User: Which sequence fits this backbone?
């Protein structure tokens, strides 16, 4: 059991090191030795978990879905909003997530690593929430959840990319607030609008509350 | 004069070849010889115009602003809409534009090539138009043109990226129509909405009309 736990920890350490190296150098310039050095594990341990650089990249890309967890909220549309702000906040502090996003976005990442998969996974997660929001009468009757969700995922991707290019993501949360200010009036029933919280510091507040809850 | 014209043509041929090669292979894997072969020019001609791979990449990135020209329209918001659909359409058929977008988006492109510049240039062009739209009373009084424009540029970038990853951009125009359906109600005065044309085939129609006009 202790052995299994150690294996899980080693795998995690390798994944986090790989995420950081891919984030800084991209797929082509990353070498297994750079990951080894960063993770401080043996070559044997790395190859046991990941037989190739491509399998390592695939695992980093797949790690994206472990991010963006938010506490349940009575209003499902608020949960959708929260996910975007939480992921935005996590991008600032988590190199594994940044590496994962870079690999998915960079065209140089080899075709064996599925570029479309993260887009589909985010869209699936959000569609489930938005369909729930629709059932509960939170959305205008004209909204088609899948269309709205795919726009949100694409828009988020580009907005974080632009924030990275212009301000090293320092203004990402502000840009997300602008995104929601433009999209919410087209999807939410008007009575809901004043109560929805899509201010720039939403992600930081949600994460702080979660940490407090976990600590108590 | 003929000599100068020939130089301009040669430069253009090199640029288009470089755009296509960067689009297919990205910055790191592109070599000067690949561009030479594609452009069918001499090494001397290429180095005369572009002393390095980096200067070639910079010129390809800068070429972005030559795209997205649209005919003037009485409604300036319609011109903004038209620019997005025309660029979307041009992305399908023009390898120089695709290469330029890839270089700007890929993090592997060296820092000497300014990643932020294309974002700023598009934002400047669109802000000018949207401020004109505001002066003419086309926009809701709450709209801050620069915020809206930066959202549009970021959103367009991510939407085209997602379309590339999922359908090799085949559904890009549909995704742009969804984008506008979500954003227009938040920025245009209500009376304008029924008359604005943001249907998926808008880009193809604008370009066809332009070609017809040029041919007559």
Assistant:
């Amino acid at each position: 059991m202790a052995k299994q736990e150690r294996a899980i920890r080693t795998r995690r350490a390798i994944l986090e090191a790989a995420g950081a190296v891919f984030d800084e150098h991209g797929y082509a310039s990353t070498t297994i030795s750079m990951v080894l050095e960063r993770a401080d594990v043996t070559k044997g341990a790395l190859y046991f978990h990941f037989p190739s650089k491509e399998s390592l990249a695939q695992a980093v890309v797949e790690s994206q879905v472990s991010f963006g967890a938010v506490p349940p909220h009575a209003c499902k549309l608020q949960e959708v909003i929260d996910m975007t702000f939480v992921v935005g906040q996590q991008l600032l502090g988590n190199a594994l997530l940044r590496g994962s996003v870079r690999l998915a976005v960079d065209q140089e990442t080899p075709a064996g690593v599925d570029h479309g998969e993260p887009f589909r996974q985010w869209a699936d997660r959000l569609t489930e929430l938005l369909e729930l929001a629709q059932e509960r009468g939170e959305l205008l009757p004209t909204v088609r959840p899948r269309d709205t969700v795919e726009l949100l995922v694409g828009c988020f991707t580009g907005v974080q990319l632009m924030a990275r290019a212009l301000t090293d993501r320092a203004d990402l949360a502000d840009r997300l607030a602008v995104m929601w200010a433009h999209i919410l009036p087209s999807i939410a029933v008007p009575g809901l609008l004043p109560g929805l919280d899509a201010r720039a510091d939403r992600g930081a507040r949600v994460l702080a509350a979660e940490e407090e809850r976990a600590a108590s």
User: Anything to note?
Assistant: The mean pLDDT of chain A is 93. Chain A touches chain B through 40 residues (CB under 8 Å). Residues 2-29 of chain A form the longest helix (28 residues).
